[in-house]
Amino acid sequence: MLTRRNFVVASLAAPLAGSARSLHAQDKALPSGRRGPESTPAPLTPAQSAPGKMLLAIHQNTSRAAGFRGSLEGWARAGIQYVELNDRLLDGFLENDTLAGARSLLGDLGLTPVSGAAGLQDIWIPGPARDGSLETWRRRCEQYASLGLERIYSPSLTNRRVTAEDFAATPDCIREAGEIASEYNLTAMIEFLRTSTHLATLTSALAMIREAAHPSVRPMVDFFHFWSGLSKFDDLDLLEPGELAHCHFQDLLDGPRELINNNSRLIPGDGIAPVVRILRKLAEKGYDGALSVELFRPEFVRGDPFQVATEIRQKCEAVMREAQVL
C-alpha cells in the first residue's frame, strides 16, 4: 500500500546528481525552444554571481504598500539591483500601464527581476480550484517571460485535508504546470509553506519534484518556512549540487513556535535563525543564486521603500560577508 512516508523515502533515495547538474546548466542558459504564443525578449540583465557567491534581492511583498513602481524606485535609490516581482502589484500597475512599460521601468532603474510570484490555490495538487489556477499560471508565465524573467514560483497553497491519493497524484500536477512553464522558457519552482496541509517541508517538496522529474521544475527554499516549520537543518544535505533554484531570505523572531506568523519574519541578522550556517551549507551545495528578502511586518510593508531597502542592504550584506557568499 502506498503511504506518504514510503513514497517520500523512496523518492529521496533516488540518485539524482547527474540530473541536478543538468537542470542547473539548463537554468543558467536559456534554451532556444518556444516562448509560447509570441516571441519574448531575453532577460534584461542575466542574474549571475561569482562562483560560491550569492545575490541580494528584495521581494515586492516587502514594500507592497508602495505599489509596483514605488517599491522599485525606492529600492533602486538604495542601490538594490535584483528584485522579485509580486503578481498582484503587477496587476495594479497594468491597470494604467502595459507590460512594455513595466519592462522599461525595470530597465530604466537598472533592476534585474530574478523571479516572479504566482499565488495560486491547489496548483500542485488535484482540487476544485486547480483548473482556474492553471489558467492564471499560464497568464503569469506569459507576463513574466515578456518581462525577461527566467523563474516563476507558486507556494503550496493548500489547507484542506490531504490524503495519500492526493500525494500520489501530485507528480502529474507538477508535470502539467512544469510543461506550461517550459513553453515560455521559465523554470517553475515550488515554495513549501509551513502551514500547508500538502507540501510543508523541504523533504516532501523534494520527493514530489523528483518523482515528477520535469526538467523545468526545481525546488526553492524560504528561510522562514524552513526554520520555523517541520524541516530541520540536516534536510539541506538532501539537496543535490546545483539543484536549488531560488531562496527567500529572512530571520526569525524569538518566541513560542505556537505564536509564529508572518510578523515573525525579520531582516537576516536580527533574529534567532542560524542564517550564516544555512548560507554556508547552501554554498556547499553549489547555490549561487538570489537571496530575496521577503518580509510582512507593517513597519517594512508601509515604510519608505528607500529606507527599508537601505536597512535591508546594510544588515544582509553583513550577514552575507560573514558567510563568505558576498
Low-confidence stretches: 1-40
CATH topology: TIM Barrel
Largest sheet: 8 strands, parallel, barrel
* Overall domain count: 1
Q: Order of strands across the biggest sheet?
A: 1-2-3-4-5-6-7-10
SSE arrangement, N to C: HHEHEHHEHEHEHEHEEEHEHH
**Portion in helices:** 40-55%
Number of beta strands:
10
What's the N-to-C terminus distance? 48 Å
User: Approximately what portion of the residues adopt beta-strand conformation?
Assistant: 5-15%
- State the secondary-structure class: alpha/beta
* CATH architecture annotation: Alpha-Beta Barrel
Shape category: globular
Q: What is Rg?
A: 18 Å
Assign the CATH superfamily: Divalent-metal-dependent TIM barrel enzymes
Write a compact overview of the structure shown.
The chain is of the alpha/beta class and about 325 residues long. About 40% of the residues lie in helices and about 15% in strands.
List key phrases describing it.
alpha/beta, eight-stranded parallel beta barrel, TIM Barrel, single chain, disordered N terminus, 13% strand, 10 strands, 326 residues, globular, 42% helix, two-stranded antiparallel ribbon
